[in-house]
């Protein structure tokens, strides 16, 4: 199932964590480039609470971390495309 870009969301927590990690890294340029090119899981509890609080489905490749949170709706399309669980 393809979700149009205008219906895809992320939280400010995710963006903040990505940039914080990038700027603290010794290889800032590589990590900043990665932010623009791929999804990086981080701050799992905060991300999940945002999804739960807004009754959203969480699309992730990191099912192992998010399955432990009861009531969280997960979409495993990314994990399936990576052939990992």
Indicate the topology.
Elements: H1 12-24, H2 28-37, H3 44-53, E1 57-59, H4 63-66, E2 73-75, H5 77-82
Parallel strand pairs: 1-2
3D architecture notes:
The protein has about 80 residues and is mostly helical. It has one domain (about 10-80). It is about 50% helix and about 5% strand. The protein is built from 5 helices and 2 strands; from the N terminus they run H-H-H-E-H-E-H. The protein has helices at about 10-25, 30-35, 45-55, 65, 75-80; strands at about 55-60, 75. It has a two-stranded parallel ribbon. Strand 1 (about 55-60), helix 4 (about 65) and strand 2 form a beta-alpha-beta unit. It is globular. The mean pLDDT is about 80.
Number of helices: 5
Give the mean pLDDT: 78
Overall SS class: mainly alpha
Helix % is: 40-55%
Count structural domains: 1
Q: Could you give the distance between the termini? A: 19 Å
- The succession of helices and strands, N to C, reads HHHEHEH
The largest beta-sheet arranges its strands as: 1-2
Low-confidence stretches are none
Major beta sheet summary: 2 strands, parallel
Our Rg estimate from Cα atoms comes to 13 Å
Instruction: Work out the number of β strands.
Output: 2
Shape: globular
Strand content: 5-15%
């Amino acid at each position: 199932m393809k979700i149009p870009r205008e219906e895809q969301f992320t939280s400010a927590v995710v963006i903040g964590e990505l940039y914080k990690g990038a700027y603290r890294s010794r290889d800032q340029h590589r990590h900043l480039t990665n932010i623009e090119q791929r999804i990086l899981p981080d701050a799992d509890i905060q991300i999940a609470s945002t999804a739960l609080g807004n009754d959203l489905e969480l699309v992730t490749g990191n099912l192992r971390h998010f399955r432990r949170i009861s009531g969280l709706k997960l979409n495993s399309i990314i994990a399936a495309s990576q052939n990992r669980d």
